[in-house]
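Worked Example 4.2. Consider the chain below.
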Amino acid sequence: MKQTVLAVIPARYASTRFPGKIIAPLAGKPLVYHVYERARQAKLVSDVVIATDDNKVVEALRPFNAPVMMTRADHASGTDRIAEVASARPCDIVVNVQGDEPLIDPRTIDAVIEPLLADPTLPMATAKALITNPEMVHNPNVVKVVCDQKGRALYFSRSPIPYIRDESTRQKSPQCYFVHIGLYVYRKDFLLQYAQWKPTTLEELERLEQLRVLEHGYPIAVVETQYQSVGVDTPEDLERVSALLAGK
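Applying the procedure from the previous section yields the following C-alpha cells:
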C-alpha cells in the first residue's frame, strides 16, 4: 500500500532578528512561497501545506493560492505546530520543511523520506552534509552530528564532534565533521507521540529539540547529502539568497 506523505512548512510570523521574514518579498513572491514551490517538486510528497499562527501570512499568500492552515499561537516549537496540522490530516508520513529555506532541494526531501519507506520500523529521519569550511566546525550556530555505522544518529551538538585527540588520527579520517541539515521526516504516529514529551536534559542544555528523540531511545536515520542549507535569518541573508536566485 502506498504511503501518503504530507509536507508541512511551519511559517511563524514573529522573528527576533527579522520580524515578518517568512513573507518578505523575494523575486516577486513571499519567501515561504518559494519553499512551498520546491516542496511540491519532491516526487515522494503527496501534499504540501503551510502552517502559520498569523493572519498576515494568510493574506500575503492569498494571491498565490497556496494552502495555508491557521494553528494555535502558543506552540513552543515548529514541531508542535506541525503535529497540530498532522493530527487534523490523513497521512502516514510527515515532513518538516523549514519555512526560511527558499533554496531547499526537492531531491534532498525525497532522499530523507526514502529511509522511512524502506524500513517500517524507523520512526524518523533527517540529513547531514560534509563540512568543508573549517570555520563552521567551531561555530555554535552550526549544529554537528555524528552517526553509527548504520547511519543512525549518535548525537547532535553545537560543539565540534567528534573531538580529535590525536592529530595523526585526523590524517586517517579527514572527513569527520558533518553539519546537520534541519529537515525532518516522521511517521505520523511517532510525531504525535514525540510532541507530547516534555523537553529533556540534553535538549535543554544544547537547545536542540531532536535530542529529545535520542534521549527517549528512538533511532534517527541520517541521510548524507551534498545540499548545503541556505537559511534566511537576517535582511542580509535575504539579499544573498535573492542574488543566488537571480544568478540561478
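The mean pLDDT is 92. The domain at 5-246 is CATH 3.90.550.10 (Spore Coat Polysaccharide Biosynthesis Protein SpsA; Chain A). Compare this with Example 4.1 before moving on.
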